Amino acid sequence: MFQYGRTVMDMTQQVTTLVILGASGDLSSRLLLPALGQLLTDHPERSVKLVGSGVEDWTNAHWRSVVRAAFKTMKCSGPAVDALLAGTTYVPADVTDPKDLQRILDAADGVPALYFALPPAIAAQACTALEKLTLPAGTTLALEKPFGTDRRSAIALNKQLAKLVPEDQIHRVDHFLGRSTVFNLVGLRFANRIFEPLWSSQHIERVDVIYDETLGLEGRARYYDKAGAMIDMIQSHLLQVLAVLAMEPPSTMGAQDIRDAKGAVLRATRVWNDSPLESSRRARYTAGTVEGEKVPSYAKEPGVDPARETETLAEVAFQIDTWRWAGVPFTLRSGKALGERRREIVVTFKPAPHIPTGLKGVKEPTKLRIMLAPDEMSLDLNINGPGDPTEIERASLSVEFGPGQLLAYGEVLEGILDGDPSLSVRGDTAVECWRIVGPVIAEWQKDEVPLTTYRAGSRGPSAWHPLG
After folding, report:
1. Sequential DSSP letters for 350-394
2. Using omega within 30 degrees of 0 as the cis cutoff, is the peptide bond preceding 374 cis?
3. What angle do CA 213, 215, 220 make, to 5 degrees?
4. Which of 383, 421, 439, 427 lies closest to 7, judged by CA?
5. Could you tell me which residues come within 8 angstroms of residue 115 by beta carbon, excluding any fewer than 6 positions away?
6. Which domains does the chain have, with CATH numbers?
7. Contacts (Cβ under 8 Å, ≥6 apart) of 3
8. Mean pLDDT per segment of 10 residues, for the chain of length 468 residues?
9. Predicted pLDDT of residue 400
10. d(CA 36, CA 53)
11. What is the pTM of this model?
12. Other CB atoms within 10 A of residue 215 CB
């Protein structure tokens, strides 16, 4: 059937069992389980069975205690929560072994959704093993980023998944695209006549997407030292934000229309002037102090291989080869162990074409700032200040969007359980993201772009011009 322009899984085919592969890991206990508990608390009418699986030889009782502890962090309660706790089971297994995977599927009721809370390489091996099984009709697969390690591996993984289930049953998870964030951007652009007519190169000078964190490595060397800021944030999350900001108006908020619009933008995106040397920068932090806490040099963090020269701060300018965006740089930046937590989109409009002679003072361009988590917005304007009516001053109009009903991962799980892939990354889009950053990664690996340093707790390398 159809609803709001999207295909919705028939009620007889809705997911009834969520299977978490890698259930004994940090992602499950810290993010997935609390989000699931919150979802069931808000929707007590839902009936979901939970099956956990991992390499640890846990009992059902121990697993149930892990789930209960995770639920307590969100004060989860209600009939759906109680029913899930009473019926949840744990299956010790090697998820790369077809026989063990069959045991996991046998523990599921109805239509299963397999959530791969696993390292990318293990997830890929598990998908290969699944090919030897007969999956129940309607089976959903959910995979965490990064999706592959480059364009070629992403294409290969897409081909492997296509052997298992149709594309609309594959969720390439990007929790960054939580419904609240996406819907706020879409509503701002398309529900306000004041913005959309100005949303082009005719009126916009540049767009900056900044995601600076005060957090350091936080014990994630095993993953992060192989990924770095480029793959961890820009290749996945921030390119998705760029796509929503720059896409053409979709006809509906349905999965096909939203994903088509994003895909069209990303196909037109490339490194600014095709020059990674001129359009990208990378750096990593040295020892310093962040929010009163001493932070060691990244190269001396436990588990880090200094020879990898992994960047902890990345910045790349892109161009979008469309009529709407010709000549407008979109600069994406993300880093760790910085002195200020900054998560915002800054849209800088072109200066007024003429300012009457006699007006004095600040004449900066208008800037729209959209803050992420928490979602807020401000519009920086030039206005006549108090006193001298010819004196121009800076003023800011601000508004809060308000929090979403669910945690980001709650919104992810809701889409998976409802069979709605609207906010997941489509296969062709995942490949395009690797294609876009590929030239930059290649130049960085050849040391064509120098790896500079910045002190932990600073704003970044002193020579870098600040964005926004």
Report:
1. PPPS---TT-EE--PPPEEEEETTTTEEEEEEEEE-SSSTTEEEE
2. yes
3. 120
4. 421
5. 18, 19, 20, 21, 32, 142, 416
6. 2-144 (3.40.50.720), 177-417+425-455 (3.30.360.10)
7. none
8. 34 73 94 96 94 96 97 95 97 97 96 93 94 95 90 94 95 79 85 93 98 92 92 94 95 91 97 97 97 95 95 98 98 97 95 85 87 85 84 88 79 91 90 97 96 97 92
9. 87
10. 16
11. 0.90
12. 13
| Omega cis (within 30) before 112 | no
Interhelix angle for 60-72 vs 33-42, to 10°?
70
Q: Are 133 and 420 in contact (CB under 8 A)?
A: no
Q: What whole-number distance in Å separates Cα of residue 330 and Cα of residue 261?
A: 17
pLDDT at position 179 is 62
Are the beta carbons of 343 and 355 closer than 8 angstroms? no
Question: CA–CA separation, 211 vs 428, rounded Å?
Answer: 25
What token pair was written down for 152?
Answer: 């070629």
pLDDT at position 184:
84
The secondary structure of 118-130 as a DSSP string is S-HHHHHHHHHHH
pLDDT number for residue 5: 32
* CA nearest neighbour of 148 among 113, 115, 124, 130: 124
- CA–CA distance, 201 with 64 (Å, rounded to integer): 55
What is the rounded distance in angstroms from the CA atom of residue 276 to the CA atom of residue 122? 32
The residues that are catalytic are 237
H or E, element range at 241: helix 239-246
Instruction: Tell me how far apart the alpha carbons of residues 193 and 242 are, in angstroms, rounded to a whole number.
Output: 21
